[in-house]
Amino acid sequence: MVTLNDGMELLGAFSDANNVEEEVKTFRPDLILMDIEMLGRTGIEATALVKKTSPEANILILTVFDDSENVLNAIKAGASGYLLKKYIANRLFSAVEEILEGGAPMSPAVAKLVIQSMQKPLQSVNYGLTEREKDVLVSLSKGNSFKLIAADCKISIDTVRTHIKHIYEKLQVHCQTEAVSKAINEGLV
């Protein structure tokens, strides 16, 4: 049973995520509460699909799974937060408010897993980036505009956009900030 706080409205409840793309387009939610284990598509797969079609959507994973593989894959797929179900009674509404204010709520054990994964020694991985994509990524990490990158690399702005799209796909990120952060953290630039 859920009692909604002021200003919150439940738009729908679904037992699976098989039609998640259509449902997100229809309801246009500010926030999606997503489990990981569902019939058909997993919550991680559904999160990636939602972020691909509606990058602005916020997704809070609510699950019993606290293993590093599920946690990290959900975050990589685009989850805005990750809360274990045993904390729902105490944290659900504060987690929802935190996400809507731009935060990333996590259960304590989940936050510890994320920190531990970030503290592992960095291994420089190429991600299959071409030399030109690396040049564009380096220039992007310096804060250069698309126009300046195009001039420096002697390519068109459209070609810069294409390279950046490929960089996002290869790094499995959704925006410039994520790409630059990942490039710096993983020693790509």
UniProtKB/TrEMBL annotation:
Q: Name one GO molecular function term.
A: DNA binding
The signal peptide, as residue positions, is none
Q: Which residues form the Response regulatory domain?
A: 1-100
**GO annotation terms (biological process):** phosphorelay signal transduction system; regulation of DNA-templated transcription
Q: Which intervals hold domain HTH luxR-type?
A: 121-187
Keyword field contains Heme: no
Which CDD domains does the record cross-reference, listed alphabetically? LuxR_C_like (cd06170), REC_NarL-like (cd17535)
Alphabetic keyword roster: DNA-binding, Phosphoprotein
A UniProt-annotated Pfam family: GerE
Q: Which residues carry this modification: 4-aspartylphosphate?
A: D35
Is Glycosyltransferase found in the keyword set? no
Q: What is this protein called?
A: DNA-binding response regulator
Q: Which organism is the protein's source?
A: Indibacter alkaliphilus (strain CCUG 57479 / KCTC 22604 / LW1)
